[in-house]
Amino acid sequence: MPARHVVYVDERLVYTTFSGVVTLDDVVRLIAALRADPSFNSEFAEIVDLSSASDVRLGYEEFKRLEELDPFSDGSKRAFVIPTNPAVYGVTRMYQLIQNDDPTIKIFRTEKEAREWVNSR
């Protein structure tokens, strides 16, 4: 499965993983799954682990569409973990720029760094 999520209610965190080639359909299905999950709360933070993603096939138009579907609240922290893949990093950075360098969206090289930032409320 290219996308999956786990909700950690006690931590107020959604941990999302993507693997392989990430497409718009993958992200839309993930959003639907989150909305259907009774333990999901839009106020939670999210860590998106892209360590196993080989490519992200999303561009400006797809990111603008996803902005309308985003299930998280405006103040939710979103940490993206991208250890080594420069192409995945570049696309994620584009998403961050489209969001006007929103301070609630950060990119990290390690899960540990992402967790520390998310937990620094």
Structural summary, described in words:
This protein has 121 residues and is an alpha/beta fold. The chain is 37% helix and 30% strand. The protein is built from four helices and five strands. The chain has helices at residues 24-36, 60-69, 86-98, 111-119; strands spanning 3-8, 13-22, 45-56, 78-81, 105-108. α1 (24-36) links the parallel β2 and β3 (45-56).
Task: Produce the secondary structure layout.
Blueprint: E1 3-8, E2 13-22, H1 24-36, E3 45-56, H2 60-69, E4 78-81, H3 86-98, E5 105-108, H4 111-119
Parallel strand pairs: 2-3, 3-4, 4-5
Antiparallel strand pairs: 1-2
Strand count: 5
* Low-pLDDT stretches: none
Radius of gyration: 13 Å
Helix content: 25-40%
Describe the largest sheet: 5 strands, mixed
Q: Give the end-to-end Cα distance, rounded to a whole number of Å.
A: 32 Å
In short:
The protein has 121 residues and is of the alpha/beta class. It is 37% helix and 30% strand. The protein has a 5-stranded mixed sheet, sandwiched between helices.
Keyphrases for this structure?
4 helices; five-stranded mixed beta sheet; 5 strands; alpha/beta; 121 residues
